[in-house]
Automatic annotation (TrEMBL):
<dbReference type="GO" id="GO:0006183">
    <property type="term" value="P:GTP biosynthetic process"/>
</dbReference>
<keyword id="KW-0418">Kinase</keyword>
<feature type="binding site">
    <location>
        <position position="127"/>
    </location>
    <ligand>
        <name>ATP</name>
    </ligand>
</feature>
<dbReference type="InterPro" id="IPR001564">
    <property type="entry name" value="Nucleoside_diP_kinase"/>
</dbReference>
<dbReference type="GO" id="GO:0006228">
    <property type="term" value="P:UTP biosynthetic process"/>
</dbReference>
<keyword id="KW-0546">Nucleotide metabolism</keyword>
<feature type="active site" description="Pros-phosphohistidine intermediate">
    <location>
        <position position="130"/>
    </location>
</feature>
<dbReference type="InterPro" id="IPR034907">
    <property type="entry name" value="NDK-like_dom"/>
</dbReference>
<dbReference type="GO" id="GO:0004550">
    <property type="term" value="F:nucleoside diphosphate kinase activity"/>
</dbReference>
<keyword id="KW-0067">ATP-binding</keyword>
<dbReference type="GO" id="GO:0005524">
    <property type="term" value="F:ATP binding"/>
</dbReference>
<keyword id="KW-0460">Magnesium</keyword>
<dbReference type="InterPro" id="IPR023005">
    <property type="entry name" value="Nucleoside_diP_kinase_AS"/>
</dbReference>
<protein>
    <recommendedName>
        <fullName>Nucleoside diphosphate kinase</fullName>
        <ecNumber>2.7.4.6</ecNumber>
    </recommendedName>
</protein>
<keyword id="KW-0479">Metal-binding</keyword>
<keyword id="KW-0963">Cytoplasm</keyword>
<keyword id="KW-0597">Phosphoprotein</keyword>
Length: 149
């Protein structure tokens, strides 16, 4: 018989959340942190970062070579990013749920992207936040953005 993992018994995870330059520029960093804390997650690392190209190349390694890769990296260097490590049970999928779908136009109302992003034309990659998509990505990304944590 397999053991069922319920939300109560799920292990505590960490995820990397980024408030992207559009979110910081628009004064939404506090709103993102408020939603994370209101959900019951814990902030364990917070830093405002002017990301360099080599960090972004490693962060977005899976997108290297795609049409939107360079515009995405340029956008991510267009202003400060608030990098946050968030902890909690099932926080990786939990934050993805708070963030909403990648395309802000289609993201459900009530999600961060659904409430604040539209993603059209040259702004297509501007969707306020990033959240790690798996335990492996979270470990890799936290090591990149918070090498001491
Ligand atoms: P996610 O952020 O919802 O996990 P990913 O597919 O991992 O989405 O893409 C990373 C980021 O790259 C997105 O958040 C968005 O900013 C940007 N992006 C993804 N797909 C496109 C695209 O088709 N055009 C432009 N930018 C894109």
């Amino acid at each position: 018989m397999t053991t069922q993992t319920t939300p109560e018994t799920a292990p505590i995870e960490r995820t990397l959340v980024l408030v992207k330059p559009d979110g910081v520029r628009r004064g939404l960093a506090g709103e993102v942190l408020r939603r994370v804390e209101a959900k019951g997650y814990t902030l364990v690392g917070v830093e405002l970062v002017n990301a360099k190209e080599d960090l972004l190349a490693r962060h977005y390694a899976e997108h290297v070579g795609k049409d939107f890769y360079q515009p995405l990296v340029d956008f991510m260097m267009s202003g400060p990013i608030l990098a946050v490590v968030v902890e909690g049970q099932r926080v990786i999928e939990g934050f993805r749920s708070l963030a909403g779908a990648t395309d802000g136009t289609l993201a459900s109302p009530g999600t961060i992207r659904g409430d604040f992003a539209r993603s059209w034309g040259s702004k297509v990659m501007q969707n306020i936040v990033h959240g790690s998509d798996s335990p492996e990505s979270a470990a890799r990304e936290i090591a990149l953005w918070f090498p001491g944590l």
